[in-house]
Structures are given as C-alpha cells and as structure tokens.
Amino acid sequence: MPHPYPIREIARQAGLSEATVDRVLNARGGVRASTVQEVHRAIADLHRQRSQVRLTGRTFFLDLVVDAPARFSAAVRAALESQLPLVRPATFRARFHLTEAPPAAELAATLDRIARRGSQGVVLKAPGHPLVVAAIERLAEAGIPVTTLVTDLPTSRRVAYVGLDNRAAGATAAYLLDRWLPDDTAVLVTRGTGSFRGEDDREMGFRATTRALRPGRRQVDLVDATGDDDVLRGLVRDALAADPDIAAVYSMYAAGGNAATVAAFADAGRSCRAFVAHDLDAENLALLREGRLSAVLHHDLALDLRRACHVVMQAHGALPGTPRSWHSGVQVVTPHNIPAELLSAR
C-alpha cells in the first residue's frame, strides 16, 4: 500500500516493532498473515487520520475496543474519527479493535495486549463479564485509563463513563408509549443477551416507569441471544402468535434488528400501533422516514467520543480537573425532526 509515513509512525500506530513493520513493507517474509494485516490497517488508519498526524504537540494514542454489531461499530469509529481533528490541545491517534460477540476471554486478551504494548487510554464498549472487569484492573495497574462507552461497567476500575443515560432513556420510552397506547395494549420489549449493563438499565427504567404510569400494562420480554435478524423475525412471530394483545414494541438494541421485527408484524398480518427504538443508524433512519418507527431515542455519539478524549487528557494531567462521567441527554427523534446532518449524510 503506497504511503508517505515513516516506519516509526506506522509501528506506533500498529503497536509493533519497527523491525517487524520494515519486514512487512519490504516483503521479506517470516511474518504472520495477521501481522501483515495489522500493518496495512495501521497505514489505512494513518490515511484517515492524516490531519492529526500533521499536528504538533503532545500525542495521545487511544485504543477503541468495541463489542457490537458491525454497523454500530462503524458508527462509533466514524464518530471518533470526526472528532480527532477537533480535540485540543493534544493530538490524538486512534487504534481500533472492533468485534461482534467475541468470547469474553478474547476481549480480555485484547485488553491485555494493549496493556503490554502501552496506550494513553482505552475507550471500551463490552459486557460486564468478570474476565473483562479483571482485564480493566490490569490496565489500571499499568497506568492506562479506561473510559466505558454506551454501556457502563461501574464495578470495574474504569475512570469514567460517557454515553446515554440508559435508565432515563428507558423511562422516556415508557412515557411515550403510555401516551400513545390504550390501556389494554401489551408491549413487546426486545433486547440482546442481557450481558450489557446498558440494556439492563434501559429495561429497569422502562419497567419502573410503566408500572408507575400504567400498572396494568403487560410487558412481554423477548431476548435474542443470536443477533441474527432471521432468528429475531421468527421469535417475534412466535410471540405475536402466543399473545393477541401485543400491538407495540420497545426495542433496546444498540443497532439492528428492528427491520426484522417490522417484518414479523407483517408476516403475522398484525399492525404495530407504536414502535420506539434506539439510535439513528441507517436502518432505523430508513424505518423512521417510512413511518415504521414512531420515535427513535438518539444521542450525540460524536460528543461522547470527544468527552472520552477529554477524560484521557485529564487522566494524564494535560487538562485541568478530575476525570468524571458524562451522561448524554436523550433526544426523541420523529420523522419530523430528523437532524439535518443525518439527512444530508444519507
């Protein structure tokens, strides 16, 4: 891959030795295929972050570790890269570790590799597995601050959380559905495996608010452990067949699944009176514009990532103040108030 970058810069971006990078670039052999891919990814990252590379001043290497469906990981990556030229007074360079539903041991191994290689900070979206919490402990011992993103790990040694106030989001969904639905309508609540605290918080906020506003309303919980749209479509069809009162949906997924749920209602010949979802990814934006979703609970992911960079700088004394958590406000987006920047990007 043609590039203008010194071997030292590529090695720092990839977290490899200069000798290894030199061997890859000159095709000398004796290097694993995965290492070759790491070098090429590092060069691609430098291409995307070239405006940051030109900046002078203190440089912070930030490792973004995300366990999420590919479309959400891509949104997080784009949000971070959009903020890198704006963060001051330091220069930030990002390294990416984006996976979908890996074993907890694999996530922990990724964090341990970062601890051994070195980093100025880790931004992490991961389930609250004991192996992950233990790996965060080791990062803290190595002096590497961890900021959790979107879903928190409050029992770990993370220095801060940035992202949506998930309990408030769940409460907002309950409030909206209460205003839109008759008393006897049951609500289907769809979510992932339950290993992410963010979804737990959304569910607690939704359940508590529904109980307070409409004690007699039934909540039908559907947990999809696969993340596969076809499987979810079948599960929703089964739920509809078993319960004729279901006529609304609250989807707690961070990304994906909602088109499958809409299709399942169509398969069953049933109407969905109200559908509240999370995050304006491409799929949800299309469903919202078509009127398939009633509202999307959205937050500024780019602002979350900028705050994560500020947390890292504070942790290293480059900005005044002590690192603290930041909870994003919940934006209720309907077909009539879609943010202009999202409309122009599609």
TrEMBL record:
Q: Which UniProt keywords apply?
A: DNA-binding, Transcription, Transcription regulation
> Domain of life of the organism in this record?
Bacteria
- Alphabetized PROSITE patterns for the sequence: HTH_LACI_2
MF terms from GO for this chain are: DNA-binding transcription factor activity; transcription cis-regulatory region binding
InterPro entries in the record, alphabetically?
A: HTH_LacI, Lambda_DNA-bd_dom_sf, Peripla_BP_I, SBP_2_dom
A Pfam family the protein falls into: LacI
- Residues in domain HTH lacI-type? 7-57
What is the protein's given name?
A: Transcriptional regulator, LacI family
